[in-house]
Amino acid sequence: MVNQDCYILAVETSCDETSAAVVKNGNEVLSNLIASQIETHKVFGGVVPEVASRKHVESITLMLEEAIEQAGISLEKLSAIAVTEGPGLVGALLVGIMAAKSLAFAIDKPLIGTHHIAGHIYANRLVQEISYPCIALVVSGGHTELVLMEREGSFVRIGQTRDDAVGEAYDKVARALGFPYPGGPHVDKLAMESQEVEELPRAWLEPDSYDFSFSGLKSAVLNAVNQHRMRGEEGFEPGIARGFQESVIEVLVEKAIRAVKSTDAVQLLLCGGVAANRGLRSALTERCEREGISLLIPPFSYCTDNAAMIGAAAYLKWKQGEFSGLELKAEPSLSLESWSVAAK
Ligand code: KG4
Ligand code: ZN
User: Fold this and answer.
1) Which of 102, 159, 178, 225 is deepest in the core (most CB within 10 A)?
2) How many angstroms separate the Cα of 336 from the Cα of each of 85, 116, 133, 260?
3) Where does the Gcp-like domain start and stop, copy by copy (predicted)?
4) Could you read off the pLDDT of 133-182 as tens digits, one per residue?
């Protein structure tokens, strides 16, 4: 099976992006279409699950057709259909799963239920080979984790957020500063342009802990904003954005570097929507250069949710012949460890 080319049609509908892609051999993207629902959810200030499901239903069939057409491949040539089975919003996941199952059944191809975070991590393989053992720093709207990967497809979570995910904290801070959803890119831009920096706390937790906490920082930002407003001050937003971004980056970078040094890791991978953060990308790049650590960061287009990353992760299961049955269910809190690929 591994000697022939593998073409995976991948589907991602875990949150507010409907995406379909065709990926060859786990690293060559033949097509990657993304229909974002951001404009729809913006008016509500966040993702409304019911609305997300309905939007996925409206666009999924067209996305699948387009992904196949743009890849210039026939359905018969596909090796498997992959779909995000979790974690994510249950109703949103279900839309992708039903579409993938129906197609897999109709054209008699294997189905591969795929973990969303494994997808974010393997987005890195769309640009470069990964070396093992490695550490992945996963920073997205729903997750903030440090993952140790001893070998390809094996995942051990060594740290995670105890409260807000980093993207969630960005979105809440952005809202307090008056930006629309999703606010991460706005805070990033303001922070990068700011000459001022307002000092904000860092949550290091226990000295040996790889866990994170961002709710204290978020509350400190909200307090600072209120105080400025009560005093009738203006123009404080850039300083807060930069202070917040510096606090987040310092903790993420320190913990990730410590995780690499205290394991046998030969590489650090950054991934997830917040990996698009310019401040984080440059701070991590600079620190890894100084420490002589090999760092992989996906290009911006593969940081936020997309189906190509799901095709990249599903390839690991395809190589081992680990397929899902048609009874595949949406798993809103699917664990990453449990999705690990069996050792060869
Ligand atoms: O991975 P993703 O697309 O969705 C989840 O799986 O959660 O991540 C979306 C998150 C949002 O919270 C968004 O604000 C954040 O990534 N984000 C950023 C930036 N671009 C996207 N956060 C900080 N700086 C950015 N440039
Ligand atoms: Zn994601």
Assistant:
1) 159
2) 11, 9, 17, 19
3) 28-311
4) 999 999 999 999 999 999 999 999 999 999 999 999 999 999 999 999 89
Structure tokens at 39: 């404009």
Query: Domains (ranges, CATH) in the chain?
Result: 7-122+303-339 (3.30.420.40), 131-297 (3.30.420.40)
Residues 6+ apart with CB under 8 A from 231: none
Q: Is the dihedral of CA 337, 338, 340, 343 positive or negative?
A: positive
Element holding 114 (H helix, E strand): strand 111-115
Neighbours of 80 (CB within 10 A): 22
Pocket of ligand 1 (CB under 6 A): 15, 140-142, 167, 170-171, 182-185, 188, 272-274, 276-277, 304-305
Distance CA 292, CA 277 (A): 22
DSSP states along 124-183: GGGTS---SSEEEEEE-SS-EEEEEESSTT--EEEEEBSS--HHHHHHHHHHHTTPPSS-
Q: Tokens in use for 193?
A: 């342009």
Indicate which residue's Cα is closest to atom 1 of ligand 1: 273
Q: Which two tokens stand for residue 162?
A: 């105890």
Single pTM value for the model: 0.95
Closest residue by CA, ligand 1 atom 16: 273
Q: Please tell me the residue having the least CA distance from ligand 1 atom 13.
A: 184
Rounded-to-integer distance, Cα 307 and Cα 23, Å: 9
What whole-number distance in Å separates Cα of residue 219 and Cα of residue 169? 10
Ligand nearest to the Cα of 313, by number: 2
Q: What is the mean pLDDT of the chain?
A: 96
Tell me the CA–centroid distance for residue 236 and ligand 2, in Å: 31
Ligand 1 atom having least distance to the Cα of 189: 26
